[in-house]
Predict the structure.
Amino acid sequence: MNAKENDKKTLSFGLALIPIVSMLALLIIGYGVMELRIEPLLLFSATIAAGIAWWQGYSWDEIMHSIVSKLAKAMPVIMILICVGGLIGTWMFSGTIPYMVYWGLKLISPQYILIAAFFLTSVVSVCTGTSWGSAGTVGVALMGVAAGLDVSLAAAAGAVVSGAYFGDKISPLSDSTNFAAIVADTTLYEHIQHLMYTTIPSFVLAAVVYLIAGHSGMMGDVATPQRVTDIITALDGLYNFNILLLLPPVLVLWGAVRKKPVIPAMLSACLLAVVLGIIFQGLSIKQGLDAFMDGFNISMFPQGAEGIIADVPRLLNRGGMFSMMSTILLVFCAFSFAGALTITGALNIIINRLLTVIRSVGQLIAATIGTTILVTGATSDGKLALLVPAELFKDAYLRMGLDTKNLSRTIEDAGTVIEPLLPWTSAGVYMATTLGVSTLDLLPWAIQCYAAIFFALIYGFTGFGIARTPKTAAAESMATEQETRTVINAK
């Protein structure tokens, strides 16, 4: 630490809480209760954090450097968001998404759409290891099917997010799964095996809820057979369907499986979709590029929307790079707060205080969950939300005789799958924008994502599913044997 940094004031615990509590209060009251725009609330939170940094002695240039550093790390996410907009527009142009919606409406009953959405995205995400790719391909198509069936879009989006993050959490191809194992000093397959204690019960619980919801009145009225028939007929009349229209999502999923760079794979899928739209739909290259930039519009067809029920234009008119601009603004505001907060060191002070009050395994698990969620919400950075708690709590787990795979499991339970449920994180923004449903609306239905936290807490306080280090397990076994001998001798 240089002399200039030594001159900065250190925050007390109370002052360290101010930016975090202010941000949470503004978002809960302003966004959740008063339904205010989230962007100015995040900017106001950033102003509070920057004010505290200025009081500590940091200059405006230093605060801006911290914010710019955070935004620089967010640029890949921003580029992916832009590409997703182009991808949706061109896939509408080619007929790729309408083709999947067409067959979904023909094959999936309204009673089974939630469970189908959950299972299909789960399978794709496990095979590819990517939640974003799963939601951006089959997830978008399934949302179209749900819209056609007049099923609750919030419920459908929750099922898609649950399935997408099921694979992101346990797939050996997932970067977050590998990263969690690395930062917690455990092996990948031990980490995945241990995750099953919380993930499988969450999966079963979600599947049961989706199955029951589909066969009850929980989702409201569903589409009549005639309405579904009208949509199928309209899609069949607008597009020339061919199985080759599935090539763009196949290309994206192949790139995910082979760990190819995401942005080139997505842009290649956009280009392929434009070519397919020209070949099969008879549209022009100018219209293809317009769909890429501004989004697809049904008026691109010669017949337009004449004689077509209103549900079809609502389903098809979407996408385009420009459709992501408001989303990108939200990312900028979120990372402005994260950058200003980082320079104050407030998170480290809060977390270090937490470490002083931990006395039991249950408290340690609870503290790890709380810290991971706090870091996820405060930094909007999924990787940092795994790294920071792992570094802070690793020694505490070892001191209590706990295998570090407990730590890797807990940070995944509270980090990887919770990130898409926070509206201002990059994952939350991506899911809400891609699926067309606000985060708070889909949150109650994303059962797979949050149920694992409750199982983790139950295991922590009961001792079930908690792995001990070999030495601790051996010592406990010897102690049990000694107690048994003592009882026998006493008799």
